[in-house]
Amino acid sequence: MSSVSPIQIPSRLPLLLTHEGVLLPGSTMRTSVDTVRNLQLVRSRLLKGTSLQSTILGVIPNTPDPASDTQDLPPLHRIGTAALAVQVVGSNWPKPHYTLLITGLCRFQIIQVLKEKPYPVAEVEQLDRLEEFPNTCKTREELGELSEQFYRYAVQLVEMLDMSVPAVAKLRRLLDSLPREALPDILTSIIRTSNKEKLQILDAVSLEERFKMTIPLLVRQIEGLKLLQKTRKPKQDDDKRVIAIRPIRRITHIPGTLEDEDEDEDNDDIVMLEKKIRTSSMPEQAHKVCVKEIKRLKKMPQSMPEYALTRNYLELMVELPWNKSTTDHLDIRAARILLDNDHYAMEKLKKRVLEYLAVRQLKNNLKGPILCFVGPPGVGKTSVGRSVAKTLGREFHRIALGGVCDQSDIRGHRRTYVGSMPGRIINGLKTVGVNNPVFLLDEVDKLGKSLQGDPAAALLEVLDPEQNHNFTDHYLNVAFDLSQVLFIATANTTATIPPALLDRMEIIQVPGYTQEEKVEIAHRHLIPKQLEQHGLTPQQIQIPQVTTLAIITRYTREAGVRSLDRRFGAVCRAVAVKVAEGQHKEARLGRSDVTEGEGCREHVLEDAKPESISDTADLALPPEMPILIDFHALKDILGPPLYEMEVSERLNQPGVAIGLAWTPLGGKIMFVEASRMDGEGQLTLTGQLGDIMKESAHLAISWLRSNAKKYHLTNAFGSFDLLDNTDIHLHFPAGAVTKDGPSAGVTIVTCLASLFSGRLVRSDVAMTGEITLRGLVLPVGGIKDKVLAAHRAGLKQVIIPQRNEKDLEEIPSNVRQDLNFVPASCLDEVLNAAFDGGFAAKARPGLIDSKL
Ligand code: ADP
């Protein structure tokens, strides 16, 4: 008997709970990990641990891990096997799981469980392979006899197998080289034994007992082989091979999990899969690949990681809608009605969408441009996309591209990777189950870039009508025809869309809404939708238009209607509570009361004013219906107003002016502030400005310095050299947001003119425009969004560059009526409009006197 080198396992072991298969010391098995505690164990011990010790686990057999970690641990099997994790293979698809390759080291017994979360850890006692080995049997002689007997049976069994198979020959050699004490465990895991028998062997801590229990198992296997050889004499060679292969599969793969039933089930699945491949309508090339893959699959052992990979692949291939499509039933008149019903305003967008659909109706196979809706969030870009699908009678699928920075997100991973999966396009097709859906590529402007390739480049192939009829996903590795898919893209700004991608798309701008449009959208669409979602009826809640307007102006400041929608959600929730409480109270009031009461209430409803929600709060009786949402109720529900008209407060000292800025989220008003102090002519700029904006500031100062005399602008010491012994600080609030662009030029000039003249800028004026050194005002972009922002903020006058006057046509007439536009071609005109009583260049008599 050769001596065993002692193995000392740690006294605390993390426990891996298994219920399929039993790992015995000296053997290796693969086990699948997909429950919460086991996953945690793999992640924190095996994937993060760096020492050899962290790869030692306690494998507890016959104990299923509960599906969630909030459930208590089931009673643990008393004896387990300390195991070394040799390999971890992970996959995220179809759900996160790992496959572990573990090798059993020795038995242990749980003394006490130390913790259960995030994974169980126990204090353990090592049971075998201790230095004093074996100390449980009576005498060495007796064990010697037992072990000799066992060895003989083992040799007999192995020699009945086909020695030409390398694994069998190796096994024969192992019988001689391995210590005898290790043989019962190893042979039990090789021969055909049930899980129950393996568990008994594991529980047999005493070596004598173990030998005694394993010998009958060996004898049984030998007898079985003899019988088999007798009955199939003619094909003896083949049989040997079959028998030989079987135990060998068990050596390398999960012993015990390959129960006959499972195998049969799997075989059935494969037959089904094969049948599906045969009957599927996939193109010839794809069909060929599938046939080849299924042939490989049939030869593969099931516990190989590649088996699951290939099977998933084939399942995807048969599920894909190669030839399945919905029929378009497009009626332009119906489409117009549907678009109008679903969306208020956005005329330009609806018009272009209808044109697009009309051309599609006339020419079926349209290789037209991809539509790209560009506008601030919450203006209905996605919902128009959904309506397009509805009008065409097509399936709709949204692919969110925000933050995608890996091209395999679009084009899939090659199948050589473990955990590889198809890209979002192919996945989307699988989800919708037809090959002509409407795909909404949401937020194409937020595609990222990384070392894993440029997803925008991958999108080019998807969107190009010349190429996309044979789009090849890396995972599929065969071409899929995307030409029937209708792609619509959305973005907040075109600035960050890669130019090549932009080139393939037709941009349709969707500007923000005016307050009046928002009120209409709220009453036609948002409120009814929210009522339905909260189970309320118009008989229970009444939101007058003034309340809506108050929510728009005081609780939201956005170009779209998304947070407005959320506010209505909050209102509806609060009312739902009141209504539900009311029903409860009504029920408590008793039957007779209620019937009487109902008669009376009908009268009340007719002429009494409905009560506000705040008034009803403390009433013992149920609230009067409908519950009216007035301004008080609004304050109760939404809290104090978030936005007040702060404009006049901020403009009460010189050196402040209101500019208009364009952002991807819509237009915004921006307060530009300036102050001066003693110094050496330095200009400090704060507020995260880009280069162009810094240049505008320098331009503004230079222009003012050169015109200081003309406008009688002086520094604190009365000098026309404005920077003489003076520092200037310009600040653009919301310092965390990066700002750039030339359009703040006029605002900076006005703000500095106010600072140096000591006069206040009019508090109801906002402005935008680029400046030149000579004092001209140049046109800028985003006029509509900017004007809407000024209107939202309650301003009255907007100074715009004269050459932008044509853009005013886009602005809804009610906004145009509310605002006074001052087109300016030079800074003179800007300053005149920005200050009460003008800012004319005038020679002050006193000054001239002194000069004379
Ligand atoms: P986006 O994609 O532009 O960010 P969404 O399409 O998600 O915005 O729109 C947000 C919500 O606002 C949706 O519930 C949508 O129905 C509603 N909505 C936006 N604009 C309109 C409109 N013009 N008419 C009706 N509902 C609208």
Overview of the molecule:
With 852 residues, the chain is α/β, with parallel strands linked by helices. The chain contains 30 helices and 24 strands. The strands form six sheets. The protein has a seven-stranded mixed sheet. The chain has a five-stranded mixed beta barrel with strand order 1-3-4-5-6. Helix 20 packs across helix 21. The chain is elongated. The C terminus is likely disordered. The site of adenosine-5'-diphosphate has 18 residues, from helix 13, helix 18 and helix 20.
Total E-strand runs: 24
Question: What radius of gyration results from the CA coordinates?
Answer: 40 Å
Distance between the termini: 125 Å
The class by helix and strand makeup works out as: alpha/beta
- Number of H- or I-type helical stretches: 30
Ligand roster: adenosine-5'-diphosphate
Overall pLDDT score: 81
The percent range for strand residues is 15-25%
Biggest β-sheet: strands ordered side by side in the sheet: 18-19-17-16-20-23-24
Taking pLDDT < 50 over at least 5 consecutive residues as the criterion, the unreliable ranges are 131-138, 235-260, 591-620, 843-852
Helix content: 40-55%
- Please tell me what the overall shape is: elongated
Largest sheet: 7 strands, mixed
Main location: other
Subcellular location: Peroxisome matrix
Keywords: Acetylation, ATP-binding, Hydrolase, Nucleotide-binding, Peroxisome, Protease, Serine protease
Subunit structure: Interacts with PEX5. Interacts with TYSND1. May interact with enzymes involved in beta-oxidation of fatty acids, including ACOX1/AOX.
